[in-house]
């Protein structure tokens, strides 16, 4: 299936047209489509060119062979601003990642996913709707400003009409949303139809997606496509962590009855983790500490699902390290990840080519998994093995690591899972049990950190209207560790072990840095909101009596700045407070001389 190291992918000719200008301005072409997808790609295998990009839809999506700049804000008319959508990624990355490599031997239909870095770095500017959606979803499901997800449906079947003897083609959905379950279901509907009817089918599907409502957090949406209605619930921060799917609703009058997805993003954890159930807790620790890990799997489907399952087991904590569900030797970051001149990066890497065993021998943790078992008893569990036993060729399944777990293994969990399997319990119930265990483990670890962080917040009574609010006190690791004796994870978790050692290593990980930055940002916003409320509750007319015009104008400008931030959902402020702030601004402006009023009221 590979074109070989020397053959570079090229765009195939004959790309059909599509409506241009994919801005998110209301009523603009493809505005709703871009809330869900960046573009749809079709990759084929050309005997002369290798993997070739046959089609990109809509056609204004920018795929380049060289790294170029990120999306830009473009002024469309006086007083109007819209975000022109320029998804920017390399054609070669899309082409190579959309096909299993020659070692996988995938026949028939295969689904998998990948994640690629945006060329030109992070897209800093977002449409306000995107920011509002992100502010309401759990942090682990927020859009990524510097990466895209690719969801692939690959077909390889014998075809005597093709010179090579095989029909080989991939349909790829490119999105910033980590909704793997939703996009897998969508591909299952549209890919088989597309392979039969080609472009007209794809155009119709994209037009239907362009009619979908925005993925607003907390809403249950009905998404029609190809005569089927997919019903999904968009997760919200207000949702309680539950293992059971949301109740079906709003489809009494729908014909046909909708296909209800229990989740837009959760994989079947039990199925993904079957070969490593005995080591799930150790893998959870490796993920928590942001350790470099290679997953060598027999196919892109197994590789990508294992990597996504591993990175999801920290929820509700955001996974702050890099991860690649499927990675090949042709990737533009191959040299960056495989260099021996520096320590391995904090990446979870999913691969299928055994060549990586030799290339990444210096990585501290390598998980080799074999062919998945379709049914029956629990698959043979991979064994813990020392890295020195790693062989370049014919490496047997195992978790090759010198790491020693800080926490004792929960043997009761494994017994419950095995008993459920023996009683032929549905896989989704066993997945729910496993997910709840990992959720409670993560929460037990994080709750003491949350409590200590909350104690660093200034008291509300110390916030006064006309003084700069007090600062959040610094996080002192030693103070936190001392607090664990009375408020540690032992209060909510039965597992014994070296919790202190685990916290000490966690402090050095990217996940602590990411968690702390996020919590500090939220607390600073809360502090700013409380200060705004204090100003709005004060008597502003008394304050103005002995103030100069400069001080009054400065207050107007600061209130306006906070009002803009609050309206952009960056400050947790009640609507009543916003109304009062607007009223205060009007009152203050009216007290100023006419010339200053003109300046402050000008657009």
TrEMBL record:
Residues 1-24 are annotated as: Disordered. Keywords: Guanine-nucleotide releasing factor. Pfam families: DENN. GO terms for cellular component: recycling endosome. This is Protein DENND6B isoform X4. The keyword Transmembrane helix does not apply. One of its GO terms (molecular function) is guanyl-nucleotide exchange factor activity. PANTHER family: LD41638P (PTHR13677), PROTEIN DENND6B (PTHR13677:SF2). Residues 1-19 have a biased composition (Low complexity). The keyword Nucleus does not apply. InterPro entries: cDENN_dom, DENND6, Tripartite_DENN. Residues 38-517 form the UDENN domain. Belongs to the DENND6 family.
